[in-house]
Design brief:
With 188 residues, this protein is of the alpha/beta class. The protein has a 5-stranded mixed β-sheet, with helices on both faces.
Length: 188
């Protein structure tokens, strides 16, 4: 989405750029959170749904959901990250169209860019949630893929530097950034 807005700005279109991009993303994120809470996911049982709802972080903590989406027909990809506080309120986020990328590489980029946002904003006590188990395993050093080492090392460096930031796996249904990433892909 930001990429699209930036291109509109650079090439003089300006018609697709919201007056207040940060407010636009915050409002859209809050709408998706409310809709997800109201509608749930009809493809999973109520027992699974109970175990698969977004939960508030502990008091004094923040939660960052991140995700990437690849259109299997075109190979085009987009990432998103959403950071919320202990009350579930939007604190920061982004959506980006990134072009062509593999799903694993894309997920690692969504984590890396989200962590850069955490550092930039000075947030502390952050739980990072991703629905891509292989990416989490790479980050936690449980597997090794040499062509992605640079991304994994960057993420691990932040996690080692910032002991108050942790990462964990969640189901896709619990990751509201899935909707933001899909929207960024559709807008591109």
């Amino acid at each position: 989405m930001f990429w699209s807005w930036w291109n509109d700005f650079l090439f003089g279109s300006h018609k697709g750029i919201p007056v207040d991009p940060v407010r636009y993303i915050r409002v859209r994120s809050e709408e998706m959170i409310r809709a997800s809470m109201l509608l749930g996911n009809s493809q999973i049982s109520s027992q699974q749904r109970g175990a698969c709802t977004w939960e508030l972080p502990n008091s004094g903590h923040m939660k960052m959901n991140c995700d990437g989406v690849v259109d299997l027909e075109t190979g085009n990809a987009a990432v998103a990250s959403l950071i919320r506080d202990e009350k579930g309120l939007f604190r920061a986020g982004f959506q980006n169209f990134v072009g062509k990328c593999s799903p694993l590489t894309l997920e690692l980029w969504s984590v890396k860019l989200g962590l850069e946002l955490v550092l930039q904003r000075g947030f502390h006590h952050v739980v990072v949630e991703s629905d891509y188990l292989e990416a989490i395993q790479l980050i936690q050093n449980q597997t090794n893929i040499s062509n992605l080492d640079h991304l994994v090392r960057d993420i691990q460096g932040v996690l080692q530097q910032r002991r108050d930031v942790s990462i964990r796996h969640v189901f896709t249904e619990c990751n509201l950034c899935d909707y933001l990433a899909k929207e960024a892909l559709l807008i591109s």
